[in-house]
Amino acid sequence: MTTLLLVEDNEMNRDAISRLLERRGFTVLTAVDGEEGIQLCEEKQPDLVLMDLGLPGIDGFEATRRIKANPQTARIPVVALTARVLTSDQEAAFAAGCDDYDTKPADLTRLVGKIRALLGTSGAP
């Protein structure tokens, strides 16, 4: 089963997105901030990370940089999942190491398509 790590500080977003992805057959781990996201990424080795960029403490940009700088986690794809819609935010996310970028509110069909493309899968997880 495909395991995703959702790093999201907003409880309503975290619960809604994780439930929707679980209904699509994914196992979803959650973290409430960048520090916890980095730690869970190292410990659990998820197949993919969905990273909010506007996190308290260590933001999503820095958390992604740290995930990508660590040889244990560098191979894990990171998708920025954020309400930030400016081109400069998207460019900064890619510069930090994100493999893809999607906006909130999440379009689940589009998001799942990006997840599958990054993991090289089709159909159910």
Automatic annotation (TrEMBL):
SUPFAM superfamilies: CheY-like. The keyword Nucleotide-binding does not apply. Keywords: Phosphoprotein, Two-component regulatory system. Pfam families: Response_reg (PF00072). Residues 3-119 form the Response regulatory domain. The modification 4-aspartylphosphate is found at residue 52. This is Two-component system response regulator.
